[in-house]
Amino acid sequence: MDYLEKLAPIAARHKDVGEKMSQSGLSSEEIVALSKEYAELQEVVDIYNAYKKAMEDKAGALEMLEDPDMGEMAQAELDELAEKIPALEDQIKLSLLPKDGADSKNAIMEIRAGTGGDEAALFASDLFTMYKNYAALQGWRVEIMDMSESDLGGYKEIIMTVSGDNVFAKLKYESGGHRVQRVPKTETQGRIHTSAATVAVLPEAEDVDVVLEDKDLRIDVYRSSGPGGQSVNTTDSAVRVTHIPSGLFVAIQDEKSQHKNKAKAMKLLKTKLYDMERQKLDSARAAERKGQIGSGDRSERIRTYNFPQSRLTDHRIGLTLYNLEEIMTGAGLGEVINTIITQSQAEQLANLDV
Questions:
Q1: Is the pTM of this model over 0.85?
Q2: Deepest of 81, 115, 190, 277, by most Cβ within 10 A of its Cβ?
């Protein structure tokens, strides 16, 4: 396979984008778009340049191999290149994988308590803390959009925006059912209970992704309420926005400001509509993807957290780790996510004709 030929058009596009960025009269939106594309292409071009140089070095070493004075040095270089070139080829294959256009986007993450009552809500809170800490380690920013607390301090539901570099690319495989096995704080007999929470990770929609028209929206306002139904405030600050054509609606009551709640609700509605459209576009490949990692089925149980044995099991790839405490702090979650991403890439490479 001529990898240089495969990557040459990408290198040419990188040069073209660089020249466009130096032009005057560009709008701020054009500058941002070009800068983003240039940075994404730069990674591929760096691999391209490294591979090109390695192949030139190999050709030069093969020529020197016949020289009695240089043969030993040439052979040493060839031995080194024999390891370097295959590694670069693996990087090239990964760079040629079809890109998910949403990978570079921010994400909206929804965590909801499932079966298990108060214990499920406490587990949802633990998952939120795990993701929040992991995000901090990545240099990402977390903003809570809405939450509904349980009587014992957990979350019946919590929705947050995670902003930063390649957020969706790393978090998208977290969608699905998460099961916990542990002794609840409320258990007096020391019995292990099983509870569950669900996680949905959606790529945050930008204004250019979804355009909403006023005629397609119904906006209702009402008073917020907290655990047990008591009034959080005495003004109609909670907002529910319904997209009439699809029947999809979202409700936000986190802020005391109706204006802020409406802004959050509109952002979440756009994201859900964008995700709905993505699902439709992917439906043609649904059967092919069903058995693969990241099938998008959020009802699928993807992971079990067994506290008595300090064991985490990801059922999609058969991964089992015994450092659950570290994972729950967020520090150990990177190993889980990186392993899943690597496995997913391996599946794609197996089906890639390069």
A1: no
A2: 81
